[in-house]
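> example.struct
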């Protein structure tokens, strides 16, 4: 399967953008910058748009999802939009009983603990184009409004989705999922295979509908030992990454606390590795052999520090980022809801002026 002729990477709208250039391993003239969770509670216009609408309903309303996606692009002049959705959206679309509780995160009606439970997920049927229609419509609408600014599509990696599904909600150390991996390897492998299919379909749909790049969030992979990651999770993530890269878009692979997994996450089949704030970029680049484009890694905590402190931190990151072939400035994790949005705007201007 190839991209349609009117895709922004094919018709040339985004192929020479700073983001796509950097993701492809070449240092562009302008320093690209965007923020994970740039659309969200830090923006008053987001809070107004979301008033009275449940999180997952807003994701599945193409007009609203598109409007929320565009808000940070208008306000901050970031170099990319990231589609407003959530990692559990594909689960909801196949009929899993999942909701997002404000201030908590994804919560499930029934946790997945056995091979029979995984079979019940499979019995829900595939995530086909009909079920994905609201996502494709939201992306298409957004891309039409973005012009030469690329849209990033995203999905949750199989382990991070499993960390929620097995626990039935958010957890601290993802013990239930890590236990299942060892207690019932057959159930675990079946769950990884299923989440890879659903997540892959969700990500490919965003790319076919017009996303110029993709990011796989394995946010909680940092809870895993390297051996467990490589043996129990990376094969399923590789399947998702390969399916998207086959469409011809660059793919970013990101996790939190994954300093020990950077090489394994690159080797799973990513073009770009996202680095959280714990490992300096020059150190991350050295671990990766100096040949992998990087994304990151402003500490979100410093968004609340006095400007000179934040500015020095950002300058240091940009300097260290020069040890990689190319670098997209971002945070080491998502924008905290209490962030002053003017700080983000100022940070974008700083990156562009340096
Ligand atoms: O980055 C962006 O601007 C795109 C939007 C985006 C959301 N979720 C919207 C959202 C992205 C990329 C995600 C991915 C996501 N969702 C991840 C991976 C990234 C990461 O942060 O590690 C994870 C682990 C989730 C699961 C999830 N969904 C959590 C932990 C929460 C927060 C719960 C809370 O209220 O604090 C959500 C809800 C969610 N997803 C919100 C947003 C804007 C907050 C909803 C609200 O406004 O109340």
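> example.seq
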């Amino acid at each position: 399967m190839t991209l349609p002729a009117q895709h922004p990477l094919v018709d040339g709208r985004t192929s020479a953008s700073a983001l796509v250039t950097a993701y492809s391993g070449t240092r562009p003239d302008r320093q690209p910058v965007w923020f994970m969770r740039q659309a969200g509670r830090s923006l008053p216009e987001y809070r107004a748009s979301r008033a009275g609408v449940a999180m997952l309903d807003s994701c599945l309303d193409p007009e609203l999802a598109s409007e929320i996606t565009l808000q940070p692009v208008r306000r901050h002049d970031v170099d990319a939009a990231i589609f407003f959705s959530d990692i559990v959206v594909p689960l909801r679309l196949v009929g899993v009983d999942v909701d997002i509780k404000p201030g908590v995160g994804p919560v499930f009606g029934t946790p997945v603990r056995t091979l029979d439970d995984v079979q019940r997920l499979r019995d829900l049927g595939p995530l086909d184009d009909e079920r994905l229609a609201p996502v494709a419509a939201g992306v298409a609408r957004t891309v039409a409004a973005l012009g030469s600014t690329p849209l990033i599509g995203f999905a949750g990696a199989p382990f991070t989705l499993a960390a929620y599904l097995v626990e039935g909600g958010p957890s601290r150390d993802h013990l239930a999922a890590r236990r299942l991996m060892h207690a019932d390897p057959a159930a675990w492998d079946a769950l990884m295979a299923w989440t890879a299919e659903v997540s892959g379909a969700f990500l490919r749909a965003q790319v076919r509908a017009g996303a110029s790049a993709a990011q796989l969030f394995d946010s909680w992979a940092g809870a895993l030992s390297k051996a467990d990651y490589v043996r129990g999770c990376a094969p399923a993530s590789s399947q998702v990454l390969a399916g998207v890269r086959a469409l011809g878009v660059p793919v970013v692979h990101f996790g939190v606390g994954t300093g020990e997994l950077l090489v394994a996450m690159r080797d799973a089949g990513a073009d770009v590795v996202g680095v959280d704030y714990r490992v300096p970029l020059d150190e991350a680049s050295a671990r990766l052999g100096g040949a992998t484009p990087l994304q990151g890694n402003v500490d979100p905590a410093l968004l609340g520090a006095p400007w000179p402190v934040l500015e020095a931190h950002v300058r240091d990151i940009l300097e260290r980022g020069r040890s990689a072939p190319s670098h997209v400035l971002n945070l080491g994790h998502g924008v905290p809801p209490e962030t002053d949005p003017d700080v983000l705007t100022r940070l974008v201007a700083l990156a562009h002026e340096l």
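> remarks
The chain has one domain: 18-353.
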